[in-house]
Specification:
The complex is a heterodimer. Chain A is an alpha/beta fold. In chain A, 48% of the residues lie in helices and 21% in strands. Chain A has ten helices and 13 strands. In chain A, the strands form three sheets. Chain A has a six-stranded mixed β-sheet, sandwiched between helices. In chain A, strand 2 and strand 3 form a beta hairpin. The longest helix of chain A has 58 residues. The two termini of chain A are 36 Å apart. Chain B contains six helices and five strands; from the N terminus they run βαβαβαβααβα. In chain B, helix 1 packs across helix 6 and helix 2 packs parallel to helix 3. By secondary structure, chain B is of the alpha/beta class. Classes of the chains: A alpha/beta, B alpha/beta. At the A-B interface, helix 5 and helix 6 of A face helix 1 and helix 4 of B.
Chain lengths: 378, 131
């Protein structure tokens, strides 16, 4: 239950107490709102008194008579505008002259309630105002959250970029000070680790490029018929050298020669990431099976590995940016933590779905469905 | 007392930072226990009282270091703690432990930026161990 503060400024005591009585027992509810709104009414007999209450209480809604004994309603409006108060104002007036109406609207009044009004008239006005205020706040909140997410992304990103530099700097200092010995061979571990961190940083930069590409590029003109089997074959070739090192057999099973309408670069990103994950998080001598199939409307791609698997807990955040599952089994595997978040973004861009099913120490299966029909990219 | 009479607990999920810190501290003469996660650090604290602890801020969670500071001070109020992190620069999330208010919730004795030199780290450790 949320409470909206209402201030009524009117020199007629009957109007003020009428508003209080009607609104104190009124609540507004909408199916899309999280909660009901109720109202708490404060009264002021003059503009001067009203302004004091405005400064003190910052009400959400102001019901304002224009004709007041001292300063006028329009002066109060101007006061609110100058201070940038977030208040919805409705004028209550018995003779809304065109002149006053224009000036009041220009200064931020959004509604006119004719005087005298019935309880029902007041209620329907308040209902509209509440709805408008609610939408305004939700929009504002969503904008703020968007900013926050971008900010978080950048701060984590710079942390990820800086960590390998710190590691390299530390190792170089160690060598500069000849702290582990006089011979170059005394520094085998630092050198090996430095090379690994450089590789990790290079991967991160590549992933970042993919990440910005799918975010920023308009690609209607790049959409074409894409044969999934071709993309799969080329991705397998890319990963093959690494698979050979780990003695992992990659099999491609084409049950249906599926085509979809897409930007081939996007689909390549999906295959590259999932096939390289299937190898990277596998065991020596394991298998990675890629299956391409289709239903009536969608292409189905399955990536199954015999790797270390993912626990139920870890699956929850698996597709978030910079999420890397840290445990004994993954500590020597390098990754940017961006791969799966990129895959998910691409899949969603094409209105597809991605599911993951995994058993620790047995393996993981990613299943992707992509619509075959041309779609509008959103 | 000699430096070799002191055992320093270091928790950091970056294996290279951990390796380098351990290397530098051992080179300076201290004994070390190195762990790669908040969970491991917690289990060490349960069984063993180190002479000093150095915690990374972001490990399993973004505030692992804060949690470890809190837990170790609860069990061993007299063990000095250094919070080491690379976050403040990038996040602009700047915190220090200079004001009384910050000291009341960040239970670290010293807060260090990552990437400080070996001699500097040794200096800070010696100060906290009153050597």
């Amino acid at each position: 239950m949320a409470v909206l503060k209402v201030l009524v400024i009117d020199d007629e005591p009957g109007i003020r107490s009428g508003v209080s009585r009607i609104l104190n027992n009124f609540h507004v509810t909408y199916p899309f709102m999280d909660e009901d709104y109720t109202f708490e009414v404060t009264e002021a007999a003059t503009g001067e008194e009203g302004v004091t209450i405005l400064d003190r209480d910052l009400p959400d809604i102001l019901l304002l008579d224009n004709k007041l004994p001292g300063i006028q309603g329009v002066d109060v409006l101007e006061y609110i505008r100058k201070r940038n108060y977030d208040i919805v104002v409705a004028m209550i007036t018995s003779y809304a002259s065109l002149d006053v109406a224009i000036r009041a609207t220009r200064d931020g009044a959004i509604d006119f309630i004719p005087k005298p009004f019935t309880p029902q008239e007041l209620k329907s006005s308040i209902e509209n105002i509440t709805k408008q205020q609610y939408l305004k706040r939700i929009t504002h909140k969503m904008k703020q959250e968007g900013k926050k997410i971008r900010y978080q992304f950048l701060s984590v990103l710079s942390h990820e970029l800086k960590a390998p530099l710190n590691a390299l700097e530390g190792y170089l200092r160690m060598m500069q000070g000849k702290q582990a010995g006089e011979m170059i061979d005394d520094y085998a571990t630092p050198i090996e680790r430095s090379l690994q961190r450089i590789q990790g940083m290079r991967n991160l930069i590549m992933d970042l490029l993919d990440f910005t590409k799918i975010r920023l590029e308009r690609k209607e003109e790049k959409i074409q018929e894409v044969r999934l089997a071709d993309i799969a074959a080329s991705a397998i070739t890319t990963v093959q050298p690494f698979a050979i090192q780990m003695d992992i057999a990659i099999n491609l099973d084409i049950r249906s020669d599926a085509y979809i309408m897409a930007d081939p670069d996007d689909i390549e990103i999906v295959f590259n990431n999932l096939i390289s994950n299937a190898v990277k998080y596998n065991r020596i001598g394991g298998k990675a099976d890629i299956t391409i199939d289709s239903s009536e409307n969608a292409a189905i791609i399955i990536f199954a590995d015999t790797g270390i698997g993912i626990t139920k807990n870890d699956i929850e955040n698996l597709f978030d940016e910079f999420v890397r599952i840290k445990n004994e089994k993954t500590r020597n595997i390098s990754g940017s933590g961006l791969g799966l978040s990129i895959v998910k973004k691409v899949v969603e861009l094409y209105h597809g779905t991605i599911n993951v099913d995994s058993t620790p120490d047995v393996g993981t299966v990613f299943k992707i469905k992509l619509p075959k029909k041309p779609i509008t990219i959103t | 007392m000699n430096k070799s009479d002191f055992t320093i607990l270091i928790a950091d999920d970056d294996p290279d930072y951990l390796f380098q810190t351990v290397f530098n501290l051992e080179k300076a003469g201290y004994k070390t226990i190195a762990v790669e996660s908040q969970a491991e650090a917690e289990s060490v604290i349960l069984r063993f009282k180190p002479s000093l602890a150095i915690f990374d801020l972001m490990m399993e969670s973004d505030d692992s270091g804060f949690i470890l500071c809190y837990k170790i001070k609860l069990k061993y109020p007299d063990v000095p703690v250094i919070l080491a992190t690379a976050v403040s620069h990038e996040t602009g999330l700047s915190f220090s432990i200079d004001s009384e208010q910050e000291k009341s919730w960040i239970r670290a004795d010293r807060y260090l930026e990552k990437g400080i030199r070996a001699e500097q780290l040794d200096q800070e450790v010696m100060k906290l161990l009153k050597l």
